[in-house]
Specification:
- By secondary structure, the chain is mainly alpha-helical.
- The protein folds into two domains: 82 residues, Non-ribosomal Peptide Synthetase Peptidyl Carrier Protein, Chain A (Orthogonal Bundle), CATH 1.10.1200; 112 residues, no CATH class.
- The chain is 49% helix and 3% strand.
- It has a two-stranded antiparallel sheet with strand order 1-4. It has a two-stranded antiparallel sheet with strand order 2-3.
- A hairpin with a 4-residue loop joins strand 2 and strand 3.
- Helix 3 runs antiparallel to helix 6 and helix 4 packs antiparallel against helix 5.
- The longest helix has 21 residues.
Length: 249
């Protein structure tokens, strides 16, 4: 060890002294939990879309334990760029992060609809023709058809799947699902899924995310989040395939 070899000769007389020098030297590598003040640094960038910012802010909130809802609303109002969504937050602050995500979705759709209108017809036609010529790869085919039916046993996890999703995204290993089909009933739902970025069910309830995490673990990823003391659980709670397909529509 380089650090140990650089210790001056005769400066260590006991194991206790060695332990103290070791702790002082490597204390800088210790990771401390982030506080609410960290969220004030998550500011919407000049050309950052609302969807990208909401995703980034939501991930940051997961790193901060026990954030007061009132403080959370104040931070969001301050960090957002000026616009209709920021005005909405100021008029009626959201009580929870889930409420913030649901209300943000409305303004995300408005923003993305406006962006689509700015695309010229010729450019849109060229993009559509390009997509029609490109055959779907295996990953796209799998995501369109839903999760594979052969996963019946799931590895016990040490952390919530929402937290593992954040880690997997940072590592660039997550395979995002295709956009869910429009369903008017979803608009009335108060549950939001970070994996689908849509309403209708919560992240905790998301079966597609459950399958995606299991596939990553079987490929050798996310081993640090595997609960070693328990055996894999039977997937008896999985609903029949017909119910799962109805959910994705």
């Amino acid at each position: 060890m380089l650090w140990f070899n650089q210790l001056p000769i005769g400066t260590i007389d006991s194991f206790e002294q060695l332990s103290q020098r070791f702790l002082h030297h490597f204390a800088i590598n210790k990771r401390y939990p982030k506080t609410a003040s960290y969220l004030f640094t998550i500011i919407q960038r000049e050309h950052e879309s609302l969807r990208d910012y909401v995703q980034r802010f939501s991930e940051a909130v997961l790193e901060v334990p026990h954030v007061n809802p009132e403080l959370l609303a104040s931070i969001m109002q301050q960090n957002l760029r000026r616009g209709r969504f920021r005005e909405s937050i100021a008029e009626k602050p959201p009580a929870t992060l889930d409420e913030f995500l649901i209300r943000a979705e409305k303004y995300i759709r408005i923003e993305e609809t406006s962006d689509v209108r700015t695309v010229t017809p010729s450019k849109r036609r060229a993009e559509e023709e390009g997509h029609s010529r490109r055959p779907p790869n295996d990953n796209q085919r799998d995501r369109r058809c839903g999760p594979p039916p052969d996963i019946t046993r799931y590895t016990p996890l040490k952390a919530p799947r929402a937290e593992i999703l954040t880690i997997a995204e940072r590592q660039g290993i997550i395979q995002w699902p295709l956009q869910m089909r429009e369903n008017p009933k979803k608009m009335k739902s108060d549950r939001y899924c970070l994996f689908h970025k849509d309403r209708g069910h919560s992240t905790k309830e998301c079966l597609h995310l459950k399958d995606e995490i299991e596939k990553l673990i079987r490929r050798g990823y996310l081993k640090e989040y595997v609960e070693r003391n328990n055996r894999p659980r039977e997937g008896n709670s999985r609903p029949p395939r017909e119910g799962r397909e109805r959910e994705a529509r």
